[in-house]
Design a protein that fits this description.
Length: 840
C-alpha cells in the first residue's frame, strides 16, 4: 500500500512539474562503434543543472522554458558538443540524440533532433530479454510480450512461430542486418522445432512492425522483424548453461596499427538446445532424443573511412528422434469422461539442416550535408529437410466412471478399438540465392528558427533465384474393430495416400522507391510523411504487382507527449512453395499472390515519472482493418499448415492493440500487451453453415473464423527486484489467449472452424541472483568468479500453475464413421536452472 500511495502521489504531482519545466532527453552513442556511451556529463551552460548518461547512454534533463538554452555534452576521450535551443514551451519534450567522436578524430558529430520514430516501428533493446524465462531459447518467444498484436498460436511454449493480427507464421518477414531470413518448411509440431536464426547474444537491438510497414520492406502480409547485430568495440563474451541446453559467444574489435579508422570486428556464437526435459511431460511417453545446434558469425572490416565489408554465416542443425511407447489421456466433463489408451511400435527420425552465407558492402561517405549511403548485398540459403516416421498405435477409446466410489476411473463402455498406422518418407531441398542493392540520400532542404525540412529518398532492387526439390511419400491406415477405414468389402483402403515429386526453378524480381518528408517546427510540431511504391514480378506465374504504401506521423510539441500515426497500403504476398502445394501433393504453378489492404491509426503517449535514470511509461494503441482477397485457405494442426493451393477465399481482420511498457520499478522495464481481434474468411463458391445454440437446424452464415482468429490475447513480461537489492530479480512471463478455431479433418469446408480449443493460459517465472559483478573486485579480490564481468544464476518454473493447454486434436474414428476428438496437450510444470557468465 505504501508503494501505491507513493506512485499515486508522483502521478498527481507530475502535471504541476510539467507546467514549470521542459524536458530534453535522448541517447548518446559512439560514432565509430555505434555503442552507448555512459557517464557523459550533460549540463546547461551558466547553471548548476547537471546530469549524466546511464549505462545505456540515456539521459534526461529538465530545463527552464521560454528561454535560450545552451546544452553541453562532455566526456573524457571525446570531443565536447554544444546544442542550442531557442526556447521550449512549458511541458515540452524534445529528443536530442548524439553520436560522439573520439578526441583527435576528424569525423563529424551526428546530432539528431527528432520526436517521432520511423513509421509504425517499435524499437527495443534486447538486454532485458536475456534473463526472460523461455522454453524455446529463441527470441521470438518474447515477441508476444513486446510487439503489438502478436501471439504464439497453437504451438504454444514449444514453438517459436508467431501469428500477427490474424496472419499465420508464413506471413512474417525477418531480416538480420538487411539479409532476409528463411525457415524450414516441413516442421509439423512444436517439439520438432530447433533454434531460430536470431541469436540474442549477438544482437544490438530489434525493430518490429505489426502492419502498415514501409515499401523498403518485402512482400508479406503481416509483419516485419528487423534485427541488427552488434558492432563490437572491445573483447567480450558469455557462456550460459541450463538443463535445456547451452550457449556461448565471443565478440571483439582489432584496430589496424597503420590506419586508426581500419577495424576488424567479429561476432561469433554457438548454441545447443535439448528440450527432453519438457517433452518428457507430454502425454505420449517414450524415448525423446532431440538435438538442436546452431553456429553463426558476423564479421566486418572497414576498408576505408567510408567503406565497410561484412560477412554473415550460419549453420543450423535440428535432429528429432522419437520412439513412442504409450499414451493415456483422459478428458471430459464431470458426468462424461473419455479415456484414450494407446500402445505404440515404431519410431520417428527428422533432420532439418540449414546453411546461410551472405556478403555486404556498405559505402557511407563523409558529407557535412545531404548524407548518402549505398549498400550491396548477396546471400545464399540452403535447406535439407528429411522427415521419416513409421509408427503404429493400437488404441482403445472408452468411457470411464467419474464418481468418487471404489469404481472411480473404471471403464464403463468401450467406444472404439483399432489401429492407427502412419508412415512418411519425405525429403525437401531448397536453394535460394539473391543479389540486392539498396541506397538512400537525405536532402536537407532548409533550416531556420521557424522550421527544418528534409527529404530522405530510399531505393532498392533485388533478384532472387529459387530451386526447390520436394519428394512426398506418406500414408495413413486406420483400423477400427478389425475393419480398415474407409470400409470397403472388396479391398483394403487407406485413410489417405500422398505421393508426389515436385521440382521448381524460378526467378523473382523486385524494386522499391520511397521518400520520407520530415518537417520540424521547433516548439510547435513535428511531422513525417512517407510514401513509396514496391513492384514485384515472378516468372513462375507471370504475375506483376505494384504495391503503394503510405504512412504519416504527427507529433505536437509543447503539450502532452503524444504522437499520432496513420498508415495504409496494398501488401501482396507472392506464393512460396508451401502455398502452391495442394492437399493431394500436386503443385499449382499458376497460383497468384495473396493480397491485402491495410488501414490503421494509432497513437503513442509517454507519461509518468520524468526523472533521471528512469524511463517514462509508454502506451501505444492502434486500431486496424485488413481486407484480404485471393487468399489460399489452409488448416493448422499444431504448427503444421496445410494449404489448399488455390486462390479460393476472401476475408478481413479488424482489431485493437494496446501496449504499455515502462519501469514500474526503477531500472527494470516491463511490458503489457492487450489485443482484441476478429479474423474472418469465406471460401469461394461455398455457403457456410453453422449450428446456433438452441437451434436444431443449421443456419447460413456470411463468413467463418480464420484458423488464426483469437478474440482476446494478453501477454505480460514483468520485472522486479527485492527492495534496496537489485541483485535479486524476478521475471514473470504471463500469456492468455481465447481458444483458436478448428474443424473436422477432411470435412472442414461447409461447417468450417466451428469448434474452439480451450483457453490458453500460462505463467512462467524466473528468479535470478547476481553471483558476481566486477565492481565487487576490491571487496572480494579472491572470489571464484573474479575472472568474469558478471554472473547470474536463475531458477525458472515453467507453467507455474500446471495448466494443461491444448496443441491440437487426435481424431479417433469408430466403425460407424463417428469421430471423437481427443486433446493433445502441451507441457506441464517443469523446473530449469540457468547459469550465465559474461566476460570482458
Amino acid at each position: 500500500m505504501q508503494y501505491l500511495i507513493s506512485i499515486l502521489t508522483i502521478f498527481c504531482a507530475l502535471p504541476l512539474v510539467a507546467q514549470e519545466k521542459a524536458t530534453i532527453r535522448g541517447t548518446v552513442t559512439d560514432r565509430l562503434f555505434d555503442e552507448p556511451v555512459e557517464l557523459v556529463t550533460i549540463y546547461v551552460q551558466g547553471s548548476q543543472n547537471v546530469v549524466e548518461s546511464d549505462i545505456k547512454g540515456r539521459y534526461r534533463i529538465l530545463v527552464e522554458p521560454n528561454k535560450e538554452i545552451i546544452l553541453n555534452f562532455t566526456r573524457i576521450g571525446y570531443q565536447a558538443v554544444q546544442h542550442i535551443f531557442n526556447g521550449l514551451s512549458p511541458g515540452a519534450v524534445r529528443e536530442l540524440n548524439l553520436s560522439l567522436v573520439p578526441a583527435g578524430s576528424d569525423l563529424e558529430v551526428i546530432i539528431t533532433d527528432r520526436q517521432i520514430e520511423d513509421a509504425g516501428i517499435l524499437r527495443e533493446d534486447v538486454e532485458d530479454l536475456k534473463l526472460l524465462p523461455t522454453t524455446t531459447g529463441n527470441l521470438e518467444s518474447a515477441l508476444p510480450a513486446i510487439a503489438l498484436g502478436t501471439s504464439g498460436g497453437t504451438g504454444g511454449e514449444l514453438s517459436s512461430q508467431y501469428n500477427v493480427r490474424g496472419g499465420n507464421y508464413d506471413e512474417n518477414l525477418v531480416y538480420v542486418n538487411d539479409f532476409e531470413i528463411f525457415r524450414p518448411q516441413l516442421v509439423r509440431s512444436g517439439q520438432q522445432e530447433g533454434l531460430s536464426f536470431p541469436n540474442i547474444d549477438l544482437m544490438r537491438d530489434l525493430s518490429f512492425s505489426s502492419g502498415g510497414f514501409e515499401s523498403k520492406y518485402g512482400d508479406k502480409m503481416s509483419s516485419v522483424l528487423d534485427i541488427y547485430y552488434k558492432r563490437p568495440q572491445e573483447t567480450k563474451g558469455s557462456v550460459e548453461l541450463s538443463l535445456l541446453g547451452a550457449s556461448t559467444h565471443i565478440e571483439g574489435s582489432i584496430q589496424s596499427k597503420l590506419n586508426s579508422y581500419k577495424h576488424f570486428r567479429y561476432l561469433m556464437g554457438a548454441r545447443y538446445k535439448n528440450n527432453q526435459l519438457l517433452l518428457n511431460s507430454l502425454d505420449v511417453k517414450g524415448e525423446y532424443r532431440p538435438q538442436f545446434f546452431d553456429f553463426q558469425t558476423y564479421l566486418t572490416y572497414d576498408l576505408s573511412r567510408s567503406l565497410q565489408l561484412a560477412v554473415i554465416a550460419n549453420y543450423n542443425s535440428s535432429r528429432y528422434d522419437f520412439e513412442p511407447e504409450s499414451r493415456e489421456t483422459a478428458q471430459g466433463l464431470i458426468d462424461f469422461t473419455l479415456k484414450l489408451t494407446t500402445e505404440f511400435e515404431g519410431q520417428e527420425a527428422d533432420d532439418f539442416a540449414t546453411a546461410m552465407g551472405g556478403v555486404s558492402l556498405t559505402y557511407i561517405p563523409d558529407r557535412t550535408r545531404n548524407p548518402l549511403y549505398l549498400k550491396f548485398l548477396t546471400s545464399g540459403f540452403r535447406t535439407r529437410e528429411r522427415e521419416r516416421f513409421d509408427i503404429e498405435g493400437a488404441y482403445r477409446l472408452s468411457q470411464i466412471e467419474t464418481g468418487v466410489g471404489d469404481d472411480a476411473g473404471e471403464e464403463i463402455l468401450v467406444l472404439g478399438t483399432g489401429i492407427q498406422h502412419v508412415y512418411a518418407r519425405n525429403a525437401l531441398n531448397s536453394r535460394i540465392f539473391n543479389i540486392e542493392h539498396k541506397g538512400g540520400i537525405e536532402f536537407q532542404l532548409e533550416a531556420s528558427d521557424v522550421h527544418e525540412k528534409t527529404h530522405f529518398l530510399q531505393w532498392g532492387v533485388k533478384l532472387q533465384s529459387e530451386d526447390i526439390s520436394d519428394k512426398l511419400n506418406e500414408w495413413e491406415r486406420l483400423d477400427s474393430a478389425g475393419y480398415s477405414l474407409p470400409l470397403d468389402p472388396n479391398t483394403v483402403q487407406l485413410q489417405y495416400v500422398l505421393k508426389s515429386r515436385n521440382d521448381l526453378n524460378s526467378l523473382r524480381y523486385s524494386v522499391f522507391i520511397q521518400d520520407s518528408y520530415s518537417v520540424i517546427k521547433p516548439g510547435k510540431s513535428e511531422m513525417k510523411i512517407t510514401g513509396g511504391l514496391r513492384a514485384i514480378y515472378w516468372d513462375m506465374n507471370k504475375e506483376f504487382n505494384v504495391s503503394p504504401r503510405f504512412q504519416i506521423l504527427y507529433k505536437p510539441l509543447g503539450g502532452k507527449d503524444i504522437a499520432y500515426r496513420f498508415a495504409t497500403g496494398l501488401y501482396y504476398q507472392p506464393p512460396f512453395y508451401r502455398e502452391m502445394r495442394r492437399f493431394d501433393g500436386t503443385v499449382n504453378r499458376d497460383l497468384k499472390a495473396q493480397k491485402s489492404f491495410h488501414i490503421l491509426g494509432g497513437l503513442t503517449m509517454d507519461f509518468g515519472p520524468d526523472v533521471q535514470g528512469r524511463k517514462k511509461f509508454r502506451m501505444i494503441a492502434e486500431v486496424y482493418y485488413k481486407k484480404l482477397w485471393d487468399l489460399v485457405h489452409y488448416d493448422i494442426s499444431n504448427v503444421r499448415i496445410r494449404y489448399s493451393g488455390e486462390n479460393d477465399a476472401t476475408g478481413y481482420v479488424v482489431g485493437l492493440d494496446v501496449r504499455l511498457n515502462g519501469e514500474f520499478v526503477p531500472g527494470a522495464e516491463s511490458w503489457i500487451n492487450f489485443s482484441f481481434q476478429r479474423a474472418r474468411e469465406k471460401l469461394d463458391g461455398i455457403q457456410h453453415m453453422k449450428f446456433e445454440v438452441g437451434s436444431p437446424e443449421a443456419e447460413a452464415v456470411k463468413d467463418v473464423p480464420r484458423p488464426t482468429h483469437q478474440l482476446v490475447t494478453v501477454n505480460v513480461f514483468f520485472q522486479d527486484y527485492l527492495p534496496n537489492n537489485e541483485n535479486f530479480k524476478v521475471h514473470l512471463n504471463l500469456a492468455f489467449g481465447t481458444g483458436l478455431p478448428f474443424g473436422v479433418p477432411d470435412n472442414n469446408i461447409v461447417f468450417r472452424n466451428t469448434f474452439r480449443y480451450s483457453v490458453y493460459r500460462r505463467v512462467d517465472i524466473g528468479f535470478s541472483v547476481l553471483l558476481w559483478d566486477k565492481s565487487w573486485l576490491q571487496r572480494k579480490p579472491k572470489h571464484f568468479l573474479r575472472f568474469s564481468r558478471n554472473s547470474w544464476l536463475s531458477l525458472e518454473v515453467f507453467n507455474l500453475l500446471g495448466i494443461r493447454n491444448e496443441a491440437d486434436k487426435t481424431w479417433i474414428k469408430a466403425i460407424n464413421n463417428q469421430q471423437f476428438a481427443i486433446s493433445n496437450f502441451l507441457t506441464s510444470r517443469r523446473l530449469n536452472v540457468r547459469w550465465r557468465i559474461e566476460f570482458g
